[in-house]
Design a protein that fits this description.
There is one protein chain. The chain is an alpha/beta fold. The chain folds into three domains: 183 residues, Beta Polymerase, domain 2 (2-Layer Sandwich), CATH 3.30.460; 128 residues, NAD(P)-binding Rossmann-like Domain (Rossmann fold, 3-Layer(aba) Sandwich), CATH 3.40.50.720; 82 residues, no CATH class. It contains 15 helices and ten strands. The strands form two sheets. It has a six-stranded parallel sheet. Helix 2 runs antiparallel to helix 3, helix 6 runs antiparallel to helix 7 and helix 8 crosses helix 9. It is elongated, with a radius of gyration of 31 Å.
């Protein structure tokens, strides 16, 4: 019998390892080094007919659609691709299927499942993953519809709520404050000291605003590696300190050094030689800029405690918008389910109409051959139009009823598909 794919119940599946259930150093082990090969293996070695892989620094997710996706087989393939044990994958992976998987995807695109609630970056990452999967033929009509709709949900949530308003990371908030403080920030010389996670958030925020900056760390190799993977122009540490004597306008510091990188005495000596002011953001914990520096003329010092207070206010505002976002998601998921149910009926209905039309054409030819020269071309056209109208008149009502049953059916539509095929005797051998 012909198999018809519908995204109902277990026929849509999501397997994921995220920051929520696995620390970053563990999560990294689940990434696919060769993403194209991973797609091919999953499609060829499982029951998945369509597949989409989403990889970010905070998650690795597999989305699949098929007639009967075998979760155990997907886990087995995943473990072989990353060289890990099946037990390790099982102990870290979260699995959702059917509507649960759809709801997770909608929350993901809306920013509700992110480390930073409401962040916009995940939406772009989902779009790029969909584009790759679609371009290479790994996703099909089912996943394409699902991802297109959930991306629209993500946009709608952001447009209708305040879920993404206000910076909620210390790094992005510091960059925003600098941006607001300087009207001509793109003309300022900016130095970032540090190469860890905190520094990467600052760098990404600067890059997002197309702001040029220098990056330095205790070793030049780390600064260069940071530049290659994140952003910034790498310079040696000593050269960076020398810049403080000359042209630097803004300094962001985010390190884990257990001592002051910028002491009062050093900065007092530097500021005596400078003619213009200097703005310093100390985002280190513990602090690496001596507080007393704030008393120097032409120096504005902002520390992590001051920024964290602003960030916390924004976090509270965003959390208030979660309820509104979830309401939008629930409404949209209902519409997605209706669309998928209607879509799942179309292959059956198209098949029935095609087979009925084949019968119509066969019987019409028989009738016309019997009549031979008794009718002219005009009469033949009348008979042909009659045959079309007859098939349409007979099938239109039951097919519309069938569409309605698919839409209203709350269970898996496979039984309804089988019943329709048997009812019209169109089973394929």
């Amino acid at each position: 019998m012909t198999a018809y794919l519908s995204l109902q119940s277990s026929q849509f599946v999501n397997l994921r390892v995220t920051f929520k259930n696995s620390p970053i150093h563990v999560l990294e082990k689940f990434t696919f080094k060769d993403i194209y090969s991973a797609y091919r293996t999953l499609i060829n070695s499982t029951e998945l007919e369509e597949c989409l892989i989403l990889q970010t620094c905070n998650r690795v997710e597999i989305y699949g659609a098929g007639n009967n996706p075998q979760q155990g087989k997907i886990i087995e393939i995943w473990s072989s691709l990353i060289g890990s044990s099946i037990d390790e994958v099982k102990s870290n992976v979260i699995i959702d299927e059917g509507e649960g998987a759809i709801k997770h995807l909608a929350k993901l695109t809306s920013g509700l499942d992110s480390l930073v609630v409401g962040e916009d970056q995940i939406l772009g990452q989902v779009k790029r993953s969909l584009e790759f999967s679609r371009k290479n033929g790994f996703s099909g009509p089912n996943l394409n519809i699902l991802f297109d709709r959930t991306i629209k949900i993500g946009n709608k949530v952001r447009a209708s709520t305040g879920i993404n308003r206000g910076s909620v990371s210390v790094g992005s908030m510091a960059v925003n404050l600098a941006y607001e403080y300087f009207d001509d920030i793109n003309e300022k010389e900016i130095l970032l000291i540090g190469s860890g996670e905190g520094a990467s958030l600052i760098a990404k925020a600067l890059k997002q605003r197309n702001i040029r900056f220098f990056i330095t760390s205790r070793t030049f190799d780390r600064a260069r590696s940071f530049s290659d993977t994140v952003a910034g122009i790498p310079i040696p540490f000593d050269e960076a300190l020398q810049k403080l004597n000359e042209n630097t306008d803004i300094v962001f510091i985010s390190t884990v050094a257990p001592y002051y990188l910028l002491t009062y005495d050093r900065m007092a000596n530097i500021m005596q030689k400078r003619e213009k002011g200097l703005m310093i953001f100390d985002l280190s914990n513990p602090r690496t800029v001596e507080d007393k520096i704030a008393t120097l003329n032409n120096v504005k010092l902002v520390n992590i405690d001051q920024i964290s207070e602003i960030v916390e206010k924004n976090v509270r505002k965003r959390k208030k918008e979660i309820e509104s976002a979830e309401k939008i998601i629930e409404e949209e998921i209902f519409l997605i389910n209706e669309t998928l149910k209607r879509k799942s009926s179309e292959p059956v209905i198209i098949t029935i109409f095609k087979d009925a039309d084949a019968i119509r054409e066969r019987e019409l030819k028989k009738a016309l051959s019997l009549m031979r020269n008794k009718i002219d071309e005009k009469d033949m056209k009348v008979f042909e139009q009659f045959s079309y109208a007859l098939i349409e008149g007979i099938l239109s009502t039951p097919m519309n009823n069938l569409r309605r049953e698919f839409s209203q059916n709350n269970k898996n539509n496979s039984e309804l598909i089988n019943l329709a095929m048997r009812l019209f005797n169109y089973e394929k051998t």
